[in-house]
């Protein structure tokens, strides 16, 4: 992979990781278009491409950790205090437990889908189908939850809601099914407001991205293969995704406080249909 390719992918990753439009789906479509334009072979994704995808996600992981750094420190302090006092009555003290248990449910759902998801990296038309599904989920969740957005109780997450969002994150392992979209929608269906659901969704992404970035290279790649990667290009893509991702999460949280996600549903439908038509009938 060259630097221009990873810069484009880093920008797309940073822009779409937190928007409910599927960053992995956009990476598949963007990479496929880049191959067609540059004349590269349109084939099953290489280990370098999949690894680069993971590193770009790590970039946005850094972005979300930096943005929520105060919340994260508050939760860690509350959890450690609760371990000493045996009092886990506050939501902050429970939150690390919720995140770990929800991530466990994510892994249970996502792991069996791993091989299928890797094959989809070279199937942008199928990604388009999943984008359309994402659009319907977003639209339905907003319609279902519009009566509860101003409810004072919908900003307090429970264990049941946390686990439901973890399951939704596991289902969203498929490119085209937006991780943020599915998890925020699950939160809305469970009775949370948009900001609370989004905050939990972004915090929940930390453990699963961290885990995949550690275990994928160990389980899937040989050291000789890793040594041959274009690390300069991968590093540039990482910083681009981190920088763009930070500003995206910052302004998206402000957006959710005022507006619904239906506009993203329309966007997913348009991009999904275009991907299906182009990669099935045009290319």
Would you give an account of this structure?
With 283 residues, the protein is mainly alpha-helical. It has one domain (3-276). The chain is 77% helix and 0% strand. It has 13 helices and no strands. The protein has helices spanning 3-16, 23-38, 47-67, 69-85, 91-110, 114-119, 124-145, 159-171, 179-189, 194-220, 223-227, 231-256, 262-282. Helix 3 (47-67) packs antiparallel against helix 10 (194-220) and helix 7 (124-145) runs parallel beside helix 9. The longest helix is centred in the C-terminal third of the chain and has 27 residues, at 194-220. It is globular. The two termini are 22 Å apart. The mean pLDDT is 87.
In summary, what is this structure?
The chain contains 13 helices and no strands. The chain is mostly helical.
Measured between the Cα atoms of the first and last residue, the distance is 22 Å
State the helix count: 13
Q: Would you count the extended β strands for me?
A: 0
Report the sheet-strand fraction: under 5%
Helix fraction, binned, reads: over 70%
- Total domains: 1
Calculate the mean pLDDT score and round it.
87
Radius of gyration, in angstroms, nearest whole number: 19 Å
């Amino acid at each position: 992979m060259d630097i221009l390719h990873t810069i484009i992918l880093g920008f797309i990753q940073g822009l779409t990781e937190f928007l409910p439009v599927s960053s992995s789906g956009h990476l598949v479509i963007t990479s496929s278009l880049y191959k067609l334009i540059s004349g590269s072979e349109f084939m099953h994704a290489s280990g370098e491409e999949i690894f680069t995808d993971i590193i770009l996600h790590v970039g946005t992981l850094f972005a979300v950790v930096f943005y929520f750094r105060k919340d994260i420190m508050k939760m860690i302090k509350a959890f450690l205090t609760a371990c000493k006092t045996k009092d886990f009555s506050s939501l902050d003290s429970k939150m690390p437990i919720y995140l770990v248990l929800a991530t466990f449910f994510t892994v249970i759902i996502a792991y069996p889908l791993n091989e299928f998801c890797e094959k989809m990296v070279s199937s942008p038309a199928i990604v388009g189908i999943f984008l359309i599904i994402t659009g319907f989920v977003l639209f339905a969740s907003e319609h279902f939850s519009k009566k509860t957005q101003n409810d004072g109780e919908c900003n307090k997450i429970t264990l049941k809601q946390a686990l439901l969002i973890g399951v939704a994150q596991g289902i969203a392992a498929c490119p085209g099914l937006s991780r943020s979209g599915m998890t925020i929608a699950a939160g809305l269906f469970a009775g949370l407001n948009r900001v609370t659901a989004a905050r939990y969704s972004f915090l929940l992404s930390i453990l699963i991205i961290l885990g995949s970035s550690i275990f994928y290279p160990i389980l899937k790649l040989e050291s000789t293969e890793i040594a041959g990667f274009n690390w300069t290009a991968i590093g540039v893509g990482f910083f681009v995704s981190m920088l763009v991702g930070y500003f995206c999460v910052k302004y998206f949280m402000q957006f959710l406080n005022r507006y619904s996600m239906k506009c993203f549903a329309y966007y997913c439908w348009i991009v999904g249909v275009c991907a299906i038509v182009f990669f099935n009938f045009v290319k």
